[in-house]
């Protein structure tokens, strides 16, 4: 491991973890009782991944995103998704302007041209409008009327959505769900957290968030996370885990229509590295993979209608996969190995 100059060393990893701890502490000072959620958001940002937050209105999804934007001093735009929102309201539109006596179409940038785009209640807009983010999320660019425009770096989409059972919601298409690194559930607070919110949050007052990092430093830390060592055994475990999500490849996948894509495997590797760096380690482990498998795989696998009728959920499938797929690849019995060689 030490023979490769591009890999991170342990002392540097610990220093970065201490720096990230400052960011975590700043966010936890204003977002109460969501420490695990905050850690996963930080992992997503280090891995350069987009984030989908699901929960009922009023649980603090938007405040969480706003707190990160203030602590990181990055440009943030917010788009409230509604049924009448058009794709051009997000990407921007060519505007006819008079220049030097002649009229020309000049592209006017939309709110997607930012570092952090808060797509609020994304599933209240039509599928056509939702698809306006596909190119931006995957390729970090926008194409309008044949012209391509690059987005700023870093670029993240943090989207919030209401549970699909609520009225006026449109399910996100699979192609867009696959572009979100994590889908995280925002749940109700416990009694102690609610008491703390009541005591510290006067109605209508914005919490104070101190700046801890900035955009360029966030990009540097993200690049550092890619230098975390990913052992072969961990990479192989990720490959076997994602392969097992496809129907016919494992017992747990029997109730699935579709498994996870290669993008899920890439995301698992990147997020495992980021999680290790967050904890001050210069190498990723299979434990890191297991810790983040649920929010990465859960929204990418499609449970069949029959399995849903039996009460089976994607979360249960992922949990079964983690139990079924061994951490280490099982070797062939010696007799079979000898036969194979001969």
From TrEMBL:
SUPFAM superfamilies: P-loop containing nucleoside triphosphate hydrolases. It comes from the Bacteria. Residues 47-190 form the AAA+ ATPase domain. InterPro entries: AAA+_ATPase, ATPase_AAA-3, CbbQ/NirQ/NorQ/GpvN, ChlI/MoxR_AAA_lid, P-loop_NTPase. Keywords: ATP-binding, Nucleotide-binding. GO terms for molecular function: ATP binding; ATP hydrolysis activity. Belongs to the MoxR family. This is MoxR family ATPase. It comes from Rubellicoccus peritrichatus. The lineage of its organism: Bacteria, Pseudomonadati, Verrucomicrobiota, Opitutia, Puniceicoccales.
